[in-house]
Amino acid sequence: MPQFVLFLRDDGRFDPNISAAEMQAIVERYIAWRAKVQQNGRSITGHKLHDGQGRVLNANGSGLKITDGPYAEAREVMGGLFVIEAAGYDEVVALSKDCPHLDFGSIEIREVQPT
Amino acid sequence: MTTGDPIAIVDHLFRKQAGQMIATLTRTLGPRHLSLAEDAVQDALMTAMQQWPFRGVPDHPEAWLFQVARNRALDRLRHGKMAAGKEPDIARASTAVESPAAPPLLRGELPPVEDDQLGLLFLTCHPSLTADARVALALKLVGGFSVREIARAFLSQESAIAQRLVRAKRALRDSQASFGMPDPAHLPERLDSVLDTLYLMFNEGYAATSGDHMIRDDVAGEAIRLARMVAMHPAIAAPRAWALLALMLLHAARFPARVDSDGTLFLLREQDRRKWDASLIAAGMRALDRASAGDRVTAFHLEAGIAACHAAAGSWESTDWAQIVALYDELLALTHSPVVAMNRAVAISRLDGALSGLAALDAIDNLAVLDGYPLLPAIQAELWREAGDTDRAIECYRAALGLARSAPEQRWLTSRLSLLV
Known about the structure:
The structure holds two protein chains of two kinds.
Chain A: E1 3-10, H1 20-39, E2 44-48, E3 55-60, E4 63-68, E5 77-85, H2 89-96, E6 105-111
Antiparallel strand pairs in A: 1-5, 1-6, 2-5, 3-4
Chain B: H1 13-29, H2 34-55, H3 61-84, H4 88-98, H5 113-124, H6 131-142, H7 147-154, H8 158-175, H9 187-206, H10 213-232, H11 239-252, H12 255-258, H13 278-291, H14 299-312, H15 321-335, H16 338-352, H17 354-362, H18 375-387, H19 390-403, H20 407-418
C-alpha cells in the first residue's frame, strides 16, 4: 500500500492565554479526524516537530554554511507531519481535506517513492 | 497504528485536570509557588494540545499530563534557582523550601486528587480575600477556567478579572495563607468562607440571565462539584454543606425550563415542570435529608427547604405556600435581607392575595437597598395587575423596563406591558 507524507505548515504562533476547554476542543477535532482515517481502514502515524528550533545546512564553494531556522523569516514553518497509507492521491486528498490543521495552515502531500 | 485511538476524551478532562494538577503541585511546592504551578500546568496542557493530534491520546491521559506538568514545574524551579544564585537572600529562602528530598508526589504516581483540590479550595477561599476575589480565584485555580471564561461568566472585562486575580494571589502571599484543610479549631469559620464562596459562584452561574449560557452552566456545575466534594469529605461532615449542595441541586434541576432556545425567559410560575430534571431533584432531596442531621438551621437549610417545596409541587397553584411563607419568615429573621423580604412578599401574595403581597412589600424596612433592582417594580406590576389596578401596573412595568439590563428581561417586561396597553 502506498504511503503518503502530509507536511503540516503554519505560522507557529498561538494564543498563550488559550483556555483548557479550547485546547481540549482542538485536540478532539484531530482525534475525530484520526478516527475517521482509521475507520477507513487506513493507518496513520505522526510526529510533532519542535517549534522555534532548527538548523539549515548549505554547502557552497567555500564550505558548509549552518544557520538557525528556518523559522525566523519564514511565513510558514513545518510544525509536524503525518504518514497515511492510501491507494492513491485521490484517496489521501479525500481523507485529508477535513483535517483540522487546515484551519491553522497548509498541508503538502507527497507520496513516498517505493524502493 | 491500525488498532485505533481512544475514541474520545473525557468531558472537560483538560479543565478538571488543570485544577487537580495545580492543587497537587501547590501542595508539594508550597503556596508561594502558586503561579509557577499554574504556568507549569498551562505548559503541560499546551504540550498535549500540540502532541496528541500527532501521536493520539495516551493510554493514561491524566498521568501523562501530570508527569509533563511536574517536569515543567521542576524545570522552572531549577531556572528560578539559577537566577536566584546571583541574589543570596532569595537563594537561601528558596532552598529552605525546595531542598528537602523531593516529596513522593514529585516522583511520579498520581496524587490523591480530591484532598488536594479541597486544600486548594480552602486556600483560594481564605478569609483575607474579598468575596469576589475568592470566587474568581477558585474558578481559575481549582476549576481550571481561563481568565476570558471567568470574565464572560461575570460579564466583566478580561483585564479587570486578570487584575483581580493578581491582587488576590499577592494578598495570599502576604498573608502567608497555608495550603490544606484548616485545623479543627478553625474549620467552622474557614468552612463558612468556602461555602459562602461556592454559593456566590453558583449564583454567578444561575442568577443572571444574560451572557453566555454555556459558560454560566459550567460555572454553576463547578460550584456543585465542589460543594459535593466539601459535603462528602469525612473530616468536614457539616450538615450546612449538605444544605448548600441541596439548594444548588434543586435550583439546577430547573435550568432546562428557565430559558428556551430563543433566550426567552420563563419565570417559575410559567415553567413547563416536565422539563425539570428529576434526577437532580431526587439528588437534591437526598442531600437535604442529610442536611437535617444537625441541630442548627442555617440560611442554606431554609433556602433549600423553599426550593424543595417548589420542586415537590406539581404546579404553581398547588404549591405549599403556607410552608414557603413560614420558611421565608425564618430566613428573614436570620438574614434581614431585603431580597429575602421581597421573595417572602411574593409567597404571601400567593397565600393571602395580591394586596397582602403589596402590603408586605411596602413593609420592608430597608427597601431603599432595592432601588435600581428591576425585579421589585416588576413584582409590584404583576401584583397590581392581579389586584385589577391596570394604571398602577402599567406604571410599575415602565419603571421596571427603565431598570432592566439584559435583553431577555426587557423582552419579558415589554410583552407583559403590551398585554395592558
